[in-house]
Amino acid sequence: MRLLTLYLRSRYVLPALAAAGTATVGSWTLWSVFSDERDVGIQMVVVTVLILVAALTATLDGPDDELDGTGALRWRPRRAAYLLMVLIVVVALMLVTQLTGTRFGPSALVVRDAAGLLGLTALSAVVLGTARAWFLPLGWTLAAVLFPHTDTVTGRILTWQAQAPGDTAAVSTAAVLALGGLVAYAWYGSARRAPAEAAQR
């Protein structure tokens, strides 16, 4: 238990969870106050999922790159399990609203976008490092929400985040990103930081 507590503290998990919970409540409140519809609009759902993933991105690495890469611990299964736990947290925070008067959904959309965006974030963390891992998901998702395309398969792939829950192209794209991110992050972990970045952490 002490090891788990130290692990969570070193990755700033509690502040990240607090930020994610606050973002969920904030989005829920905004929709409840300014809309008469019970079901939250798809754009709001997508953006809220993006915010939750971004809030938890900081937990994808620890303060010590050397420790995260040591051979004394089996990091690959630990990293894979941790990424799956982050996915569960994001989905749970969104879907618990199904019990309230304002609902984030449908469930298939939440799961698809959470898995795809988390996988994309994990891939970015492997290549760019945790500090910059949210850049690509943010830019891609905002573009998809603002300029969704449904007329061609290519358009639905490029704007998969904003497509209908059952869209095959969108589901396939999210699945590829989720699986690719899980495998790459589990195998390699986040890219190592420059000494100045590590000192700031």
Shape by Cα distribution: globular
Strand content: under 5%
Residue windows where pLDDT falls under 50 for at least 5 positions: none
Helix content: 55-70%
Mind summarizing the main beta sheet? none
Instruction: Classify the oligomer.
Output: single chain
pLDDT average, as an integer?
A: 87
Our Rg estimate from Cα atoms comes to: 17 Å
Number of strands: 0
- Measured between the Cα atoms of the first and last residue, the distance is 24 Å
Broad structural category: mainly alpha
Helices and strands, in order, run as HHHHHHHHHH
Number of DSSP helical runs: 10
Q: What would you say this structure looks like, in words?
A:
This protein has 201 residues and is an all-alpha fold. The chain contains 10 helices and no strands. The protein has helices at residues 2-10, 13-34, 42-57, 65-68, 75-95, 107-128, 135-146, 153-158, 168-188, 195-200. Helix 2 (13-34) packs antiparallel against helix 3 (42-57) and helix 6 runs parallel beside helix 9 (168-188). The longest helix has 22 residues, at 13-34. It is globular. The protein starts with a helix and ends with a helix. The model has no long low-confidence stretch (mean pLDDT 87).
